[in-house]
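Retro notes
What went well: the complex prediction finally ran end to end.
Inputs used:
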Amino acid sequence: MSSSAPSTCAGSRPLLAVALLAAACTGSIPPGLSDPGAAGGSSPTTPGRGTPGVPGVAPIPEPPRAAGCKLDPGPSPLRLLTRTEYLNTVRDLFGGPRDVGGDLPEDGRPARGFANDANARSASDIMVAGYMKAAEKLAAAAVGDMGKLLACDPAASGGEAACLDELFDSFGTRAWRRPLTAAERQNLTRAFQEGKTGTASGTPSFASGVEAVVTVMLIAPQFLYRTEQGTPIAGSGFAQLGSYEVASRLSYLLWGSMPDSDLLSAARANKLQKPEEVLLQARRMVDDARFLATVTDFSNQFLGLDQMDTLDKDQMTLPAWKPELRDPLRIEGEKFLEYVLSKEGGGKLSTFLTAPVTFVNKPLAAYYGLSGPGGDAFEKVALDPERASGALTLGGFLAAHGTPDDGLTSLVFRGIFVREGLLCQHVPDPPPNALDENPPFTPETTSREWSFARMAKPVCGTCHQMIDHLGFAFESYDPIGKWRTTERGKPVDVSGKIDGSDVDGPFQGVVELGKKLAGSKMVGDCVATQWFRFAAGRSETDRDQCSVSTLQDALSRSGGDLRELFVAFSQTDAFLFRSQGDAP
Amino acid sequence: MSAPTRSTAAPGARRTSPPTPVSRRALLRGAGGVAIALPFLEAMTPRRALGQEPRTEPKRLFTFLIENGVVPSAWFPTGSEKDFKMGSILAPMVPFQKHMILVDGLDNKTSGGTCHAVGRAGCLTGQNNSGGRAQGISIDQAVANHISTGTRLKSIEASVFLKRNFIYSLFHSGPGQAVFPEDDPAKVFERLFSAGVPTPVTVGNPSPTVNEEFGRLRQRKKSILDRAMEEYTRLQGTVGASDKMRLDRHMNGIREIERGLQALGAGGSALGASASCKLPEAPPAGTSDFQMHTKLHSELLSMALACDITRVGSLQTRASLTSFTWLGVNGGQHAISHQQGSAGPDAQLNKIATWFCEQVVYIVKLLQSFPTGDGKTLFDNTLLFWANDLGTGPHSRKRYPFALATGDFTLPDGKPLQTGRYLKYPGGTAHNDLLCSIGRIMGLPLEKFGNGQGKGPLPGLG
């Protein structure tokens, strides 16, 4: 999961001097910007943004920053919509789900990081072909219901030109998430003319022209990518985002989809420039079901539950595994997250890491050996507090971090998750000759015995000391997340130790480890960093320290409330500004 | 080997009855009851003449991948370069020994992760791994860029039971640019054959009405792509270097669609089509049987090469979690492969590897069944590359079991590629050099390939 240096997660920076949520606005809307312009206010007629302290020029609205922090949004790579974002956007653009998922390949999750990592993604030929196919279908369906798409009559006065203007202004603004520029209108008008005459029979057709325009819009970068310009801040290499761009960022951050009419109205009125205006919108948005879907996406990827639908286990050595359990195991994790974020769960990270409750239906209850629901519906069940520790003992998480067969290294996967996923400490890749050093094992060798033999070898031990002692906590759970008291005929031993943290010391099993992690400031800071990676669609860099601090502070000040963390990204430099080009 | 029961190619038979263009309705019906929504244009491909005159036959590359290494004693031959006895795994290949080149002594010297990550990322690229992605292009894609000119698709990548396990990628179109294979035979079929296949024409020309309509719709699609391209070009002028690279890949994708349209209309893709090219039966939806899955992909990819829809096909098999129960092997191949070196597991691994050898033999026979315009067969114009993501020994990246197979293959310099050889190179030779040789055999003027570990093409090969 993590890939950055431990130093970014060390939690040693001073706390923010100002309260995050009492956003002190130091700026105002510059004069003459009631219309922010098409591309975020970057058109030549738009007055430039001022620099603080320069007389006569309005200062830039600044989010609250920690002492010593200067404006720096970090790198701003161009972000391609994920498959989920694409399908959500299409749903919201056309007013209902559209069945084009089959045309789009799955996002390939890289070995490290989230599936939306801009630096690990680019459009393959198959993806581009899929976008075209989907666009053709969507456009055909859209003109099939022309009344819904366009209220105008091409035969009336003003005719086609007026209709095109309406198409660009209404549908176009929504599809491209901002008003269209003159050059874009010109290009799309040409698409209309060529599409109008380009029918199979050769007979011109208005609908055919509109269909061509919609198709172009749906395969253009303005739709598929989150394109931004912003208004340059003189001499900085940075730009402040226009209100439409902020609206788009907000909606993809919290909803994984395009802006709704409220956001677009706010953008039109240029009311998304001050951090507190942005925060107000963010608070409105978290009450929407789309927010839960987005943080579920984050949580699923964080825990590996996104891999459940293709997770394979060897049924010969793990006979309890059934492919039919994939969905229930994922849903269990999703229900658990929903519970954590609910009033009852209080949104607390500590609940996420330790709560001895879960949600099961009949097949899953049977799998775990729980007495519980008798049907397909998921019900909340209390678990043995001596055994269960929130997300850390979810069957799906344990299976995703378990060997594919009845192997000896589940504890390694789980230890790495704690080290990298929860402590944000980088575990180096094994050296090239690592496998030659693997100690021998027999069918009677336990995971723990093999681990100690491995840690005793210099080549292996350096890293496995970091990993395996944490992994021992999970040895009560087999590679598919089922409770066990013995392994290969020997009693399991779950004693381990944690080091390199602010909660160092020995523990017995996952419940004790979970309690330690829940009380760790480092873990809170790391979870905030993970949210940064998902929210920014990239790994943090040294330049992002202040933005990451803002998140870490939001989490710690709220007593570990994840909901405050999720919203706080909207108040960071990384969110409100962008770096221009590759500079600086 | 398991007898191929699904009929695909009718070996050598040139069609004599007047063929009909593929109808949209027929395709829709063909997909095992699952409707394939075909873009209208692609269902209207006009017929065109093909295979009229002797010609320079295009070259093809078919890559077949297995995983987790093999037991060395059962793979590597004994004997000399020209006079050798193959290992027991290769027994099904004995009748084709004169067509084979077995390469020994190669290590995967790429780095940057665990054995599986490096094994996968480095296998076809010779490049280091970063986060499950190789830091450079894979040989299949490099060759495709070079030889798949005028075909509808640049390449096709299919997989068996990989599902969407894309954590570690094999195929790459550039640094960090993974190309994910398609697991579902129905989708591979759709990708390859949704536009039908070039049909040998013996009477008359395609109906002028169909051609006019086709021309108009193609023009329409081209206009849409051009208008979109204008937006990409405009955007590209405003972004930094790394975003430019991202947009470049996207624009290449748009050009790929345009090139496919071009090939569809111009008849260009038909030039290399075998007279035995024909639309294969649509695979049933939801194939869940490993054997059938492998067979279907082998047939679809072979037919794609025969019809000159593309010239580069790759098939990645994932045996790791499959119990080869039909061979009496219980438990996934991955777990067993960790125990390589013990007699019991070795015997099981060899059974599995031998089964894969039978599948390679099946592909060879399929390729041999397609006559080509130069009077030979598709096999004579195809280089079959059988690769493995790991080497020999448990999860080792040493002494990889690589094999090549082809018929009467002419090298770019006009000389025949010498086959029936067992080539032993000094231990520790970087496998980059084999990839480099393959590129050169396929006409790509490579000096070196991959991460700099290699020295250049293997002596005596390419």
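What we learned: Confidence is low (pLDDT under 50) at residues 1-54, 200-209 of chain B.
What to try next: split runs per interface for comparison.
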